[in-house]
Amino acid sequence: MKHLLYTALFCFLVLQSVNSQQLKSPNGKFIMEFTLQKDGTPSYSLNYKDKTVIKPSKLGLELKDDKKSLLNDFTVIDTKTNSFDETWKPVWGEVESIRNQYNELAITLNQKETDRQIIIRFRLFNDGLGFRYEFPTQKNLVYFVIKEERTQFAMTGDHTAFWIPGDYDTQEYDYTTSKLSEIRGLAEKAKTENLSQTSFSPTGVQTSLMLKTADGLYINLHEAALINYSCMHLNLDDKNMVFESWLTPDEKGVKGYIQAPAHSPWRTIIVSDDAREILASKMTLNLNDPCKIEDTSWIKPIKYVGVWWEMISGKSSWSYTDEFPSVQLGVTDFSKAKPSGTHGANNANVKKYIDFAAANGFGGVLVEGWNEGWEDWFGHYKDYVFDFVTPYPDFDVKGLHEYAKSKGVKMIMHHETSGSVRNYERHMDKAYQFMKDNGYDAVKSGYVGSIISNGDNHYNQFMVNHYQYAVEKAAEYKIMVNAHEAVRPTGICRTYPNLIGNEAARGTEYQAFGGSKPNHVTLLPFTRLIGGPMDYTPGIFEMDLSKFSPNNKSHVNSTIANQLALYVTLYSPLQMAADFPEHYNKFPDAFQFIKDVAVDWSESNYLEAEPGQYITVARKAKGTNNWFIGNVNGYEPRTSNINFAFLEKGKKYTATIYADGKEANYKTNPQAYNVRKIQVTNTSKLSQLSAAGGGYAISIIENKK
Ligand code: NOJ
Ligand code: CA
Q1: In this structure, are 246 and 334 located in the same domain?
Q2: Taking the model in full, what pTM does it have?
Q3: How many Å apart are CA 223 and CA 245, to the nearest integer?
Q4: Which residue ranges does the record assign to the Glycosyl-hydrolase 97 N-terminal domain (predicted)?
Q5: Nearest to residue 110, comparing CAs of 74, 63, 58?
Q6: Which ligand gives the minimal distance to the CA of 367?
Q7: Ligand number, closest to the Cα atom of 344
């Protein structure tokens, strides 16, 4: 009945001229207009609160070696409308239930000359637009090869953009804030300074791309449900301010091999005049399929520690022997190998981390460098690189599992693939079974370096399929996956919630590789996190790495209070306390927040937000009445004014505030903080100062009567 009503109402919303049709969002704030141009080119435009967000923009795909591309000469042969409204519960998340409400318009187009049909499906939500290409089963479009997708996003002006350069292999960049017209010059300058970029277009940027217009509109461009397709970057025509899709090619330059029936991922445009609504948007998740895993009881959010930062910072090594020299000398039998003496993943050290996890309530211990292969990265001396089942002699898989189990801690597996992807696929069943046999439920995988195989890039279709294969196969084994250097997420964790983490951006490791911009963490939620959670690995308390790793001159550009806030501001069901036990033991009062903070939430309230400047969010820990607040701050010291109205009326709480000290600064005084307790209710207000590159964290615990 409800559906019928919606459909009736909806008929009013679609103007019935075939070549030009309008779609309205359920709240009426958005209008999308589809137009078939004179030469039969499909196009769309988008308005929000009577302002143009996207000017008329072309849609279509260029095909390779084909008599005709899917760009023009179309006629509209069918139009279908629909309305949808449901509420679903994620297995884990920022909120415990999510409303998925949209109006839909599906246009079937026919290309006369080739007698081919495509459908363009638009879904207009209360927070933005998603659309995709569909290729139904048909006689004249069975297999085809994509030369380039030609989806445009025509901007209305020279907006401010928060961007990282287009690259087929990495997203591990600091963000640049500039006008669109400045991208070319800045990218060219960066190109000469940064040799690591493997693909270059002077105006190419990655998604999720955050934009702000001069009159205060926030626009986010990204994609949802990237499956069996190449990852999309954007190229800007900076004369006309028109972005166009730029898919990741394989070695032959091919951007996609498609067999109908098939469809593209969703292209997404999230829009608001309030930056907080961009962060709160669930559109990307809503455009993904519902959960495909029947029994999800084994998928559990977790906080963990690990043998990790010591290798990243250069204090110890992943390899048991010296990395390359020993294999070059022919040492492949580790019972005879001379240990380097710096191997981090040794039994005694791992036990130290297990003890620390158990003593402080962490569920997991990650250990990297536990297995053979690090000494022979390119597999020169064996017929494989890593086999993911052979430990180094000083890492006792069974013994450590028993030890961890006796302390109520789970070991977390590490699979560095060295980018040797077919090798990983060949060993995957055995590797996952080995995990199950030894009590591991979660794996951090990694794809460092160039993809070693047939010239693939990290983000082309073959690789996207590989990452997906790894997640789906892991689900068969009831294994949770946290993939590093994989393609950036697009909301697939709705369908496969065992994908509990991804890196796919510049994480804490870069603080040890030269540092990151102090406002980086105020941008990640507006960009990278739009597609899903990040394993950022926060919690660094010792910012001067040379104190324990003399050759490392990097500085962690953050304050201790900022590091605490990240557990709340960078949403993830998987959170690491990345620093060493001895550093936490030095600051037990600050460490208390990391021990207390939740990793799964029933509500999230974005209290303040401005990309590049600040984010303040309050989250309610699932199954409790307790709240946690995090604030991260950019370059300038700032006072935020917090209203506790989100608390339940009539209840009293003790708030513990972990704040930057007066003199704190991300560079000059990162360890200045103070901890204080106050009583709060839902009428309380708070003014709180954050230092440059700083922030604050607050735990709000309901008083027991
Ligand atoms: C890069 C990952 O981001 C990092 O976390 C990991 O320790 C190394 N690769 C080694 O696999
Ligand atoms: Ca990385």
Answers
A1: no
A2: 0.96
A3: 11
A4: 23-290
A5: 74
A6: 1
A7: 1
Please say which residue of 560, 579, 597 terminates a domain.
597
Residue nearest to atom 2 of ligand 1 (CA): 484
Measured CA to CA, the distance from residue 662 to residue 641 in angstroms comes to 17
Contact present, 632 and 522 (Cβ < 8 Å): yes
For residue 99, what are the contacts with CB-CB under 8 A and spacing of at least 6? 85, 86, 87, 282
Statement: residue 197 has pLDDT above 80:
no
Please classify residue 581 by burial: count the beta carbons closer than 10 Å to its beta carbon, then call 0-12 exposed, 13-18 middle and 19+ buried: middle
Output Rg (C-alpha) for the chain, integer angstroms. 26
Q: Which two tokens stand for residue 34?
A: 């589809």
Enclosing domain of residue 367: 302-597
* 446 Cα–ligand 1 center, Å: 6
160-195, pLDDT tens digit by residue?
999 999 999 999 999 999 999 999 999 888 888 775
Ligand 1 neighbours, Cβ below 6 Å, are 308, 312, 368, 416, 446, 448, 484, 503, 509
Structure tokens given for 131: 């659309």
Domain-located, residue 328: yes
Return d(Cα 404, Cα 438) in angstroms, integer: 11
Cβ-contact 627, 618 below 8 angstroms: yes
pLDDT at 40: 97
| Catalytic residue ranges | 509
The whole-angstrom separation of Cα 137 and Cα 535 is 39
Claim to verify: residue 277 and residue 318 sit in the same structural domain: no
Owner of token pair 């949403």: 571
Q: What is the number of structural domains in the chain?
A: 2
User: Do 277 and 333 belong to one domain?
Assistant: no
